[in-house]
UniProtKB/TrEMBL annotation:
InterPro entries: Acyl_CoA_acyltransferase (IPR016181), GNAT_dom (IPR000182). Residues 3-156 form the N-acetyltransferase domain. GO terms for molecular function: acyltransferase activity, transferring groups other than amino-acyl groups. The lineage of its organism: Bacteria, Bacillati, Actinomycetota, Actinomycetes, Micrococcales. PROSITE patterns: GNAT. PANTHER family: ACETYLTRANSFERASE-RELATED, N-ACETYLTRANSFERASE DOMAIN-CONTAINING PROTEIN. It comes from Agrococcus jenensis. The keyword Transferase applies. It comes from the Bacteria. This is RimJ/RimL family protein N-acetyltransferase. Pfam families: Acetyltransf_3 (PF13302).
Length: 156
């Protein structure tokens, strides 16, 4: 499988919105916008993310197909990574490969990542890329409408 990363373009947003409102994907991610079907909130989020030069938001392509997105950003002085894959392509190693490519570009360490405890596939992506579990916390997750356990991972 050959994938590559490239900067997000405006014409990618419609596809990202479709994935980010998919009910199964929202449930697995858990920590999403309050209403994943709200396009105005989606657009406002991406305007804010793209306006911050510290954020790196890249899309994942397999061949000529857009298959996901990966990003780095800073929250509360901690550098974090995140990824979102087309739900129709889950389980094919795309997230693991894309995160590996992102980690070649993002040299800041430590890096943190978070995964809902009920999402072992996301945990596996992080572990394959050298992250280690460093803690857990219970937080409100809009995607599932309740508090859930979120695992915190670190890469040094």
């Amino acid at each position: 499988m050959t994938i590559r990363l490239r900067p997000l373009r405006d014409d990618d947003l419609d596809q990202l919105f479709r994935w980010e409102r998919d009910p199964d994907a929202v449930a697995m991610a858990a920590f999403t916008r309050e209403d994943p079907t709200d396009r105005a909130a989606f657009d406002a989020h991406y305007r804010r993310v793209r306006a911050d030069p510290e954020n790196h938001l890249l899309v994942i392509e397999q061949g000529a197909q857009l298959v996901g997105a990966v990003s780095t950003f800073t929250i509360e002085q901690e550098r974090e990574v995140s990824y979102w894959i087309d739900p129709a392509r889950w389980g094919r190693g795309i997230a693991s490969a894309a995160l590996a490519l992102l980690l070649e570009r993002e040299r800041q360490r430590p890096l943190f990542a978070r995964a809902a405890a009920h999402n072992p596939a996301s945990a596996a992506v992080l572990l394959r890329n050298g992250f280690v579990l460093v803690g857990s916390e219970t937080s409100w997750a809009a995607g599932v409408g309740r508090e859930i356990v979120e695992h915190v991972y670190r890469l040094d």
